[in-house]
Amino acid sequence: xxxxxxxxxxxxxxxxxxxxxxxxxxxxxxxxxxxxxxxxxxxxxxxxxxxxxxxxxxxxxxxxxxxxxxxxxxxxxxxxxxxxxxxxxxxxxxxxxxxxxxxxxxxxxxxxxxxxxxxxxxxxxxxxxxxxxxxxxxxxxxxxxxxxxxxxxxxxxxxxxxxxxxxxxxxxxxxxxxxxxxxxxxxxxxxxxxxxxxxxxxxxxxxxxxxxxxxxxxxxxxxxxxxxxxxxxxxxxxxxx
Amino acid sequence: xxxxxxxxxxxxxxxxxxxxxxxxxxxxxxxxxxxxxxxxxxxxxxxxxxxxxxxxxxxxxxxxxxxxxxxxxxxxxxxxxxxxxxxxxxxxxxxxxxxxxxxxxxxxxxxxxxxxxxxxxxxxxxxxxxxxxxxxxxxxxxxxxxxxxxxxxxxxxxxxxxxxxxxxxxxxxxxxxxxxxxxxxxxxxxxxxxxxxxxxxxxxxxxxxxxxxxxxxxxxxxxxxxxxxxxxxxxxxxxxxxxxxxxxxxxxxxxxxxxxxxxxxxxxxxxxxxxxxxxxxxxxxxxxxxxxxxxxxxxxxxxxxxxxxxxxxxxxxxxxxxxxxxxxxxxxxxxxxxxxxxxxxxxxxxxxxxxxxxxxxxxxxxxxxxxxxxxxxxxxxxxxxxxxxxxxxxxxxxxx
Lengths: 241, 400
Known about the structure:
Strand content of chain A: 25-35%
Largest interface: A-B, 27 and 25 residues
Structural class of chain B: alpha+beta
Oligomer: heterodimer
Helix content of chain B: 55-70%
Order of helices and strands of chain A: EEEHEEHEHHHEHEHEEH
Low-confidence stretches of chain B: none
Distance between the termini of chain B: 27 Å
Structural class of chain A: alpha/beta
Order of helices and strands of chain B: HHEHHEEHEEHEEEHEHEHHHHH
Number of strands of chain A: 10
Largest sheet of chain A: 6 strands, mixed
C-alpha cells in the first residue's frame, strides 16, 4: 500500500541545511497499524507528512497503491489526499465557527458532494464516532475528546484507505485518550490502514509495528508488543536500517 | 463546489469578524454612494440647464452684434463696427423666409417703482413676437402691442414676481409704474415661468423695443431673436440671416448662434463634469479596495491554520483562491449594495431639498458603481488570496 524507497527530506534554514529524513525505506501493507516513535526532531512528523502527501520528499520515490506520488503537482497531491488519506491532528484543527456536522462536511464541500448527501454522510460519520447527539454543537461547546472524535469523523467521511494521526491523544486526558485509541483500533480492525505518530509507548503498543526514528533514519523496527520505553529502545541493540 | 457554496463558506468566515468586515463594507458603501450622489448632482445640473433652455423656447436663433472670430470680443460687448438696429430686424423678417417670428431685443436695468415701492429690475425691450418666441404666457391683460417696431409706446408688461413686489395682491393692469425716468402704463402681467437660466423672466419688465432703446439711450440692439418653424429650418435660416445682415452692413459683423449649440456645448461641459466627479468618487472606491486588501491580508494570516487544514483535506489551489476571492467580493458587493441604498437616499434627499434640480443618478453610474465595487473586491482580494494559495500546507497547519 505504502512503499517508500530512499526517501529524504532536507529543509533549508537560513544558510544551513537540515536533513529531516535520510534514506528511509519502508513498506506499510494495507490494513496495518503502524506507530512512528522517536525523540523530538527525529523526523516523525516529517515522515507522516510525506506519507500523507502534504510534503514532497527531496529524494527517493514514494509509491502509494503502486502509483508514484513523489513528483505530483500540488493539485494532484490535493486530489490524492482527498481520495485516499484522512488526517487526525493533535490540536484537532476544527473550524471554530462551524458546527460539528459542518466540520465533518468540509472535505465533502471541496469534493463537490451535494448538500443533502453531504449532511447525510456527515451525520453517519458522527454517529460512528459516538457523537450523533452533538452534531449541532460548535467546537467551543465540545470537550477535547469530543473535538477529536469530530476530527476523526471528518477524516473518515470520504472513506479513505489510510488514516494518519499525529499525536492524536496528545491534548487529551488518559480516559478520553483511551477512548480515541479504541475508536482508532476499531477503524483499523475494519480494514483502515492506520499510521500514528506518538511519543507515548502505551499508544505505540497498540500498533502492529513500531518504527523508531533517530536523526531522520529508521533506527529500530519493533513489534507493537515489544515496545516498552523509548529510552530503553534507543539504548539497546544496533540500528537495523 | 458551486458559487453559492463558496459564498456560504465566505459569509460564515466574514461573520466570524463582524466589526472588521463591517468597517470595510462601510468604506465601499461610501465610495459607491459618493459615485451615485455626485453623478446625480452632475446629471441634475445638466437636466436643469436643458430644461431651462427648453423652457425658453425651441428652434431659436440669436443674432448678436460683433463677430467673435474677427474681434475676439464677447458678442454683444463692443467690438462691433456697425450697430444692430430695428431696421436690421425688419429686414430679417422681410427677407428670411425660413423664419416664423423675429423680435429685436434691447436689455437694460433700472428702478421700477409704484408709489413708495421700488425694485431694481432687468428691463427687456422687445416686440409682441417675443411672446411666441419665448413661449411666454399672459396671466392678465395683454403682451406688448403689435404694430411698427420703431414706435415706442409708453406701456409695460410685468413679470409676475415684479408685479407682486410692486402691487402686492392688487391688480397691476391699467396702473402706471415709473421705469427709470419714464412713466409707463401696465398693460399685462405674465404667468410665472418657474425654472429660468440667466435672467429671471418673472422679475422682468417688458417694454416696446423702441421705448427700451430710448430709455437706455442705445443705438444698437442687444440681439435679435429669431424662431424657425422646425429644427431643420435652423441652419438655412442661420445662413440666410448672416447673408442679409452682411448685405446690409457691407461686411459680416454679427454672430449668429443657435440656442441648440449653446445647450449642446453646455450639456457636454456638464457631462464631462459629471464624468470628472464620478472619477474623483471612484478614487474613494480604490481607497476602500486597499482597505479590503488589508483586511483580507490580516484574515489570511489569522486563518493560516485553517488554510492548512483545507489543503490537508483536499482543497485545491483554485478552490482556496476562489474561497478568499469570494470573501473579498462579498465584502465589496455587500458594501456596494449598501452604497446603492445610501446613494439612493442621498439623491432623494437632494431632490427634496432642491426640487428644481432633477438629481437622479444615471443608470450607467448605478451599474458602473456597483460593478466597480465588486471588481474592487476581486482585484484587491487577489493578492491576499494568492498568498493563501501559496501557503505550504505543513507550515500552515502549524500556523506559520
